[in-house]
Amino acid sequence: MFSHLIIIQPLGFLYGSAGPFLSPDNLVGRSGNSFPPSAATVSGLYAAKYSQPGINKRGETTQQLNLPDLTLAGPFWAYTKDTQNFYVPTPFNYLAEMNPPQDEEKIRQGKIIEKLTWNSETQQWQPLKPGKFDTETWLPINQWEKAETVSKAPWQYLPHLHPRLETEQRRVDASSEQGSLFLENSIQMHPDTCLVYLTNTPIDDGWYRFGGEGHLVEVQCQPITNETLLGRLNQPVGNNFALITPAVWGSNRLSYRFPTIRQEQDWITAPEWENAQVFTERPRPFRYRLGGTGDTKRLARGRYAVPPGTVYVLEKGIPKPWFDWDKCWFPDEGYSYKRWGCGLALPLS
Amino acid sequence: MDKDNQCYTVITFAPVQGFIEKSRKLRDLYGSSFLLSYLACAICHAAKKHDCRVVSPALINVTQGTPNQIIIAGNFPENIAEAAFNQAWQTVVETCQKYIEQALNTFTYTWQREWNAWSNHAWEFFWTQSTDAELSQAKATDITPEDVTLMTHARRKLNQLKTQRNWIAINWQGESSTLSGTGAIAYPRMTDKTHPLNSSMAEQTQDINQFYHQLSQHLGESILDPSERLSIPELIKRLITLDAIANQFISEKDLPSIEIPQSFVDLNRFDNKLWAGYFQGDGDKIGDYLRHLKEKGADEADSLHTFSQAMMEWGRNLKYYLPPTQAERVKRRNLDADGRIIYAGGDDFLGVLYRIPEPNQPKLTAQDCLNWFYQFPQIWQQHKHKITVSVGLVWAAPSVPQRDVLQHCREAEKSAKNKGRDRLAIRILFNSGNYLEWVCPWWCLQQFLESYQDREGDTLAALQEKPKGNKTTPNWTHFYNDVTTLESRHAFQEQTQIALGLFELYFTPENRQCLETHLWDTSDADHQQKTGILGNQPHVQEKQNIKALNNWVINLAKVGFHLSSSVTENA
Predict the structure, then answer these.
(1) Across the interface, do B171 and A128 touch by the CB < 8 Å criterion?
(2) A57 touches chain B (CB under 8 A)
(3) Is A206 in contact with A11 (CB distance < 8 Å)?
(4) Do A257 and B167 touch (CB under 8 A)?
(5) Does B174 touch chain A (CB under 8 A)?
(6) Half-sphere exposure of A125 toward its Cβ, with a 13 Å CA cutoff?
(7) Hey, which residues does B282 pair with through a beta bridge?
(8) Any idea what DSSP says for residue A337?
(9) Total Cβ atoms within 10 A of residue B522
(10) How close does chain B come to A113, measured CA to CA in Å?
């Protein structure tokens, strides 16, 4: 069960690059960026603290992270003063409209104007509300039951030119044909806010390297004191729930919108999820580097995630909270994807 | 058709925007635009064969256009539609795969499984239909308001269906495509079973390098750079613009004609240090306009069809209006158009203005782009429908990746929309990734920019008639310096006198008066609606209004400076 919050405050900028959080090929460009960093990125913090020298199957010495039960979930964000009431992605069936811009310094706020519910008779989300609504909004977790206001993300992209360094030396690579500068899009978080992740294993407070290029963040670990949150995380999700983290489901070869299980040669939708209705969006790439003996960690398989905010309406329902969900729904590749909090869901009323 | 037994079928597929966006070269854009319209076209043809009337898109033999919704009058069964769609796509995939395998026949190809995956899971397909009976029932149970027509009902049903999405995504191993950062790198042995613990990365990398080196040699570096590592769909987008492949699709009867790529000169902004003007736009409030037609008694399907036809014809002809003008091109023989339309199908369009440098030809300047956009409302009006248009123009520095430029394009268009529509948003995008933006309604764009008079009293018109030595354009630095100095001293706060005063000084008192009377939407003496310079209506808070005006003047100074100065041309 999740017991603690990991609070991450950048000391300066963070990087948001395409695909994996940090990859040399994709350090440039705004398109396809992925910020905030995934829960898998956060597990790197543990590697720094808890890994011990060991020997792998092939007899090579490695750094091993001996935390078999570690489970993380996120990303979320919060105001530094009120970390227990962090913001999660707004369920897609809540239609939100942003308020007109006020002060440029403030994080933009908005309100929820309609909540669509699934009508199984007409096979429709109702009420029918034509028009364009604001997307990519965040909802304070304390309003989960009674959602009224939403917020835009408290970060922005700051492009700047960055010198391209030689691989072996700390000096600008002037010989390269591609030029000695490259464009980089760093992320600036609003100073009153921080990133938040859930964990079941506390980590020491301190400054850590996070997000590449020697960038530092201040990490704090707090027990979850928010009783309603704890209650909600322990509540069975039932037959109507929304994801607050990305969900990765499917076989090694294909990613799906529903959990799949193996049946002989085929992969089929898990029985609980059959005939489920879903309100979702385009898939998002989900990938991380971890393990391996070298400096560059081994790259996991590239998969696609159902985006957070996705709403499911099941016929039967799942009488368990997320933490007790069947492990076989989650892909397994060295680690179970449950370890990264994939598909963390909260029941909708 | 029997009125009582009417039926509409609505079909769409996805992703569209995402498919176009994953582009590095102009060729990618062009290829994806072609593919999308080719697939839409396949559905329309199948519908016609099935004796159904295609309401929208009205013209199906148009390459440039990405109709994202196909509306068909009549009962067009899902299985036929989907089969036609799949077959069209699978033919493309197969053709491209075979082309590579034949062109580079020294490799052993074991990649079939991956191509199959792409031929099966590349698209989400959505189909729905609605009948009169169904609509009446929906109305009876109060689910649907009384005024909803059958076609609207069908479209709404499709939108409902789209909330489900329908994707199956293809996972990948190893390093990702360098173009999009996701997806496997396509190479002959990509499906070979490798285990991360005992596979040799070095060997794999060598395989990939060798393949791309040869493929690049075969296709030419302008089509595929040897350093690029593409995924299967990205390769398809490139290959589809090749003569040898495109011709296979053109030769088939009734398929859209693609521009013969022999003439396809690639744009290399980086090496040639070329700035280019990317623009994206679309018509304002199309839905409202069609509703308005319907209220006037026009048949919904007919008016949509006529409208769609007008827009597509407009889109098809847009390329002929690219600068320089036809007359100019005739005068100076062999002069290419300064740019290319990527797509212009429905009411939306995307294009780029650039000029391949030639010894006797000057580089394309921002001013050239502006001159064209002064004419744009007239070009837009050729379709003769009374709707306005919002456009985002990005004057982009050479080193900004195209993917980013496209994103800026979309954001600029959004700015134009958000600021009240019927206007142009101009973004100057620097190599550093920073940008400046100024948004101005069409009607006063030229009037304002050309009235600029520097401190020496020079205007553009006067200087063009009688240049003063090297000086052919007025000096925008004067206005720019004043604004930046005053800005740094916080002069533009809580009042608009300074901004207005400066504007009057450099842009004549008449224009100041014009600005002040048209800050927000107004009607003049002839009840002609005039688009407000700052937007439709004032903000609730006066503070916001002051800020809006000040920012407009400040941005005018900065953007105007970069548009007119030679700095951007040579930087």
Answers:
(1) no
(2) yes
(3) no
(4) yes
(5) yes
(6) 24
(7) B348, B390
(8) G
(9) 13
(10) 18
Q: Where are the beta strands (DSSP E) in A116-192?
A: 117-119, 124-126, 138-140, 149-151, 155-163, 181-189
3 state DSSP class of A113? strand
| End-to-end alpha carbon distance in chain A | 22
Whether chain A has a CB inside 8 Å of the CB on B147: the answer is no
Nearest to B182 among A279, A292, A302 (CB): A302
* Alpha carbon distance A50, B292 (integer Å): 67
Two structure tokens written together for B169: 């995504």
Chain B residues inside the 8 Å CB shell of A161: 431-433
Cβ(B435)–Cβ(B428) below 8 Å: yes
Torsion of CA B287, B288, B289, B292, to 10 degrees: 130
| B-chain residues near A132 (CB < 8 A) | none
Q: Which amino acid, A99?
A: N
3-state SS assignment for residue A278? strand
Number of domains in chain A: 1
Residue A126 to residue B143, Cβ atoms within 8 A? yes
Asked if B115 and B3 count as a contact pair (C-beta separation under 8 A), the reply is no
> Which residue range is the domain that position A263 belongs to?
4-347
pLDDT tens profile A173-205: 666 555 566 666 778 899 999 999 999 999 999
CA atoms within 13 A on the CB side of A127: 8
Q: Which two tokens stand for residue B480?
A: 């720019």
Which residues on chain A are in Cβ contact (under 8 Å) with B406?
31
Nearest 5°: the CA angle B76, B82, B84 is 90
Q: What are the C-alpha distances in Å from B10 to residues A45, B78, B150, B328?
A: 50, 10, 11, 44
Read off the amino acid at residue A9. Q
What would the pLDDT profile of B438-472 be if each residue is shown by its tens digit? 999 999 999 999 999 999 999 999 998 998 888 88
Chain mean pLDDT for chain A: 85
Structure tokens at B452: 């600029």
Distance to chain B for A226, nearest Cα, Å = 33
What is the value of pTM for the model shown? 0.89
DSSP string, B222-244: TTS-TT----HHHHHHHHTTSHH
* Of residues B168, B178, B404, nearest to A256 (C-beta): B168
Q: Which of A245, A314, A237, A305 has the alpha carbon at shortest distance from A277?
A: A314
Within an 8 Å CB–CB cutoff, is residue B180 touching chain A? yes
Cβ–Cβ below 8 Å for B403 and A256: no
Q: What is the pLDDT of residues B541-550, one digit of tens each?
A: 888 899 999 9
Strands of the sheet containing A238-243, edge to edge, are A277-279, A311-318, A238-243, A345-347
* CA nearest to B442, candidates B524, B349, B370: B370
Report d(CA B158, CA B471) in Å as an integer.
59
Residue A127: cis peptide before it, omega within 30 degrees of 0: yes
Smallest CA–CA distance, residue B141 to chain A, in Å, is 10
Contact B21 A183 (CB under 8 A): no
Instruction: Calculate helix-pair angle for B112-121, B232-239, nearest 10 degrees.
Output: 80
Q: B211-230 in b/e burial notation, b at 16+ Cβ within 10 A?
A: bbeebbeebeeebbeeebbb
Tell me, yes or no, if B365 comes closer than 8 A to chain A by beta carbon: no
Compute CA distances A151 → A30, A117, A138, A222, whole Å.
22, 22, 5, 24
pLDDT digits (tens, 9 = 90+) for B355-381: 877 777 788 899 999 999 999 999 999
Count of pairs with CB atoms under 8 A, one residue in A, one in B: 132
